[in-house]
Amino acid sequence: MQIDVFTLFPELFPAYLEASILGRAQQAGLLGVGVHNIRSYATDKHQVTDDTPFGGGGGMVMKPEPIFAAVESVLGAPPAVPVILLSPQGRVFTQAVAQELAQHSRLALICGRYEGVDERVRQHLATDEISIGDFVLTGGELPALLLIDAVARNLAGVLGQADGALTDSHATGLLEGPHYTRPAEFRGWGVPPELLSGDHARIARWRRQQALRRTAQRRPDLLERADLSAEDRKLLEGNDE
Ligand code: 21W
């Protein structure tokens, strides 16, 4: 998958994209990310990318011309790929949206700054508008990185077998239960005996029960939407262990 990012702050991207799983995905040719500076596409002497809002009110708005020029120069006019505007007014990003976007071979992401972008970018260039949640950030760059991260780990080959995207919490619709590693005793705190039992069926049952209980406790909204088996309902009621 190829993702092209359009931003006034391209220097924010490399450190995160080069590390760990995303770095390896790019080296393996599974993911390509092009980061493009919108400012380079401004045609005036001072490469101005923002201006005061019509109607007054203060703050600055990103001008349409450099954004259209940047996106159309990289992707053609009109672009034949989804063009996603990251904005607080977008539909809220979820695991389901990440999985949906991972089906495309190419995406364009536009990061806003200041008070936002000229409405004509939204109306005539963007094909989708996404928010990452109900809180206020300073721009769309962190949301773009977050989206790339969540989408990339759904691409075939990006994750190892062990932590496959299909078994993820939120892909299964439940929160995960607790994880432990060595030592078996730390500062007098032990590890649940089920995990040390070597009985794989018992371990699987205990893990499922912990996931169900934690979800019931912390995210009853998720549990309501999960389709639980009869066995799950028994585990949740505590009739098992
Ligand atoms: C924040 C842009 C607020 C516009 C009145 C006076 C992209 C984001 C962003 C930003 C405003 C996302 C105002 C969750 C986010 C983003 C920057 C509104 C401010 N109104 N997801 N001043 N949260 N944020 N204008 O902030 O670009 S996705």
Describe the fold and architecture.
By secondary structure, the chain is α/β, with parallel strands linked by helices. The protein has 2 domains: about 1-150, Alpha/beta knot; about 170-235, Trp Operon Repressor, Chain A (Orthogonal Bundle). About 35% of the residues lie in helices and about 15% in strands. It has a 5-stranded parallel beta sheet with strand order 2-1-6-5-7. The mean pLDDT is about 95. Bound molecules: ligand 21W. Ligand 21W binds next to strand 5.
Which descriptors apply to this entry?
15% strand; 10 helices; 7 strands; binds ligand 21W; alpha/beta; Trp Operon Repressor, Chain A; 241 residues; 2 domains
Protein topology:
Blueprint: E1 2-7, H1 14-18, H2 20-27, E2 32-37, E3 50-51, E4 61-62, H3 64-75, E5 83-92, H4 95-101, E6 106-111, H5 119-124, E7 128-131, H6 141-152, H7 193-196, H8 200-218, H9 220-225, H10 230-237
Q: What is the CATH topology classification name of the largest domain? A: Alpha/beta knot
First-last Cα distance? 45 Å
The number of domains is 2
What's the average pLDDT?
A: 95
Shape: elongated
Assign a percent range to the helix content. Answer: 25-40%
What oligomerization state is this entry in? single chain
CATH class of the largest domain: Alpha Beta
Tell me the Rg in angstroms.
Answer: 23 Å
The named CATH superfamily of the largest domain = SPOUT methyltransferase, trefoil knot domain
**Topology as a string of helices (H) and strands (E):** EHHEEEHEHEHEHHHHH
| CATH architectural category of the largest domain | 3-Layer(aba) Sandwich
Distinct small molecules: ligand 21W
